[in-house]
Specification:
The protein is of the alpha+beta class. It contains 2 helices and 4 strands; from the N terminus they run H-H-E-E-E-E. It has one domain: Nuclear Transport Factor 2, Chain: A. Helix content is 37%, strand content 24%.
Length: 90
């Protein structure tokens, strides 16, 4: 009986890990990568808006930056890579 409970618990933990991993990848667009801005153009646009990029990432279907805004405040922002619109910011 204990072995069955451990197997069941293991399956639940594995399923939760899989869901967490899926949630970790943000969804900002459903457009194919051919329609995305190049990373260089995106970074140039964002820096032109006054952001200082400390770290750039591309999780899922988003462009993400960690850095500072024009006022020096720390930011974490997810952008739609097709047009550079903010999808989520922290």
């Amino acid at each position: 009986m204990r072995k069955a409970a451990k197997v069941g618990l293991g399956a639940i933990v594995l399923a939760m890990a899989f869901v967490s991993q899926a949630e970790a990848k943000k969804s900002c667009t459903d457009q194919p990568k051919e329609k995305w801005m190049s990373e260089a153009d995106f970074k140039k646009m964002v820096e032109g808006q006054g952001y200082k990029i400390r770290k750039f990432k591309q999780p899922g279907s988003c462009y993400e930056i960690y850095g500072q805004d024009k006022d020096g405040k720390e930011v974490e922002i997810y952008f739609d890579p097709t047009d550079g619109k903010v999808v989520k910011s922290k």
